[in-house]
Amino acid sequence: MQRDKNLIPLSHQHQHALALCVRIDRAQPFSEIQLPTWQEEVWQSFEHEIKVHFSAEESVLFPAAGQFRELKPLIDDLLAEHLSLRRSFSEAEGRRMSSKNLVAFARELSAHIRKEERQLFESMQKRMTPEQLALLGCQLEEALKQATPVCRLTRTASAEWDTAGRKTTPKTKP
Ligand SMILES: [Fe+2]
Ligand SMILES: [Fe+2]
Description:
The chain has one domain: Up-down Bundle (Four Helix Bundle (Hemerythrin (Met), subunit A)), CATH 1.20.120.520. The chain is built from 6 helices and no strands. It has helices spanning about 10-25, 35-65, 70-95, 100-125, 130-145, 150-165. Helix 2 runs antiparallel to helix 5 (about 130-145). The chain starts with 7 loop residues before the first helix and ends in a 10-residue tail after the last helix. Residues about 150-174 have low confidence and may be disordered. Bound molecules: fe (ii) ion (2 copies). One fe (ii) ion binds near residues 14, 53, 57, 113 and 116.
């Protein structure tokens, strides 16, 4: 099923997180020297995007899905996964992850994302009316706003590099 446009902002963020998971999986085995760098990247992903993504899902998406009783067990699973993943992000922040933990984390995060995309989003699209989906889209946009300035800044900067072939805006940081 094609992704409904109101869920696309969440799907885009899923792609970013999946790309990180794939890179972690391909980069193993890790040396002791590499581990802190990977953990820094995991933590930065959380701080810049995933933290707000999780709270938008918890405050807007899951309650909207919860109006369908049959989706409640799935939402409970997803909430428990958020808890476990937050623990891993916190381990990454404290640089406490072993190589094994890092790989297990990447697999857990990608399984979580696939469950949301293949089970939750599909089920919601089948059950919700276009009006309900449009309202959900507005609420998600509002909830995701906190993450937007960083993303927009990054996208704008890359777009200007890509299209002009040179930097066209004042550089804020070296
Ligand atoms: Fe999630
Ligand atoms: Fe998600």
